[in-house]
Every structure is written in structure tokens, then in C-alpha cells.
């Protein structure tokens, strides 16, 4: 079945891209490539229909194993991106406090006496 073979190949390419240096070199471009791979896999997945031969079933089992690896890698990359976003936000807050240290002065301990 051609769709299953293509699905296997696209999944394999996606894993190679996530494990390779492409991700580290240019993350924005790698994310766009990942998006294209996911869309291509989605279309191919809809084309996969029974009946399956023994070859197809063997390839399907390999696809399932690759899908598990792909899910694991995507989870790792998601955590990396979340950590980077958190780090950038913290640095932005730090830079704002450094630029204007009296912006958020604590008023703890002050009170107003209403008596005259």
C-alpha cells in the first residue's frame, strides 16, 4: 500500500529532523518543517484503509513504534520551547526592573492617620 509506505517515510523523516542538528541550528524553520510533516502525515493517515497484506501489517507495526518515538521527541521539544519562553519572560521582567527600579516600590508598612 503506497499511502502506508509514504506515511512510514514521512514519520521517519520527521524523527530524523527532530533528532538532528536542524532543530538546534534554526528552530523557526524546523518548526515550520515539522508543521508541514504533520499535515502531510495527517493526509496520508486518512488514505490508509484496509484490507491489509502481511507486509502492510508489518509496516504498520513499525509505524506504531515510530509514532511512539515521535510523540516522545515532540514532548521533549515542547518542554524545551516552554522553558525557553519562560526564560525569556523572566529576563524581560528583570530588564524592566533594572531599567526602572522604582516602578514597583513596595508600600508595605505605610499607613495614613485619619485623625487630625
UniProtKB/TrEMBL annotation:
Protein function: May act as an export chaperone for the filament capping protein FliD.
Transmembrane ranges, per UniProt, are none
List the subcellular locations: Cytoplasm, Cytosol
What's the chief localization of this chain? cytoplasm
The highest taxon in the source lineage is Bacteria
- For this entry, the protein name equals Flagellar protein FliT
Which keywords accompany this UniProt record?
Bacterial flagellum biogenesis, Chaperone, Coiled coil, Cytoplasm
Q: Which family does it belong to?
A: Belongs to the bacillales FliT family.
Q: Per its UniProt record, what InterPro entries does this chain match?
A: FliT
- The residue stretches assigned to a coiled coil in this entry are 1-47
Q: Name one Pfam family in it.
A: FliT
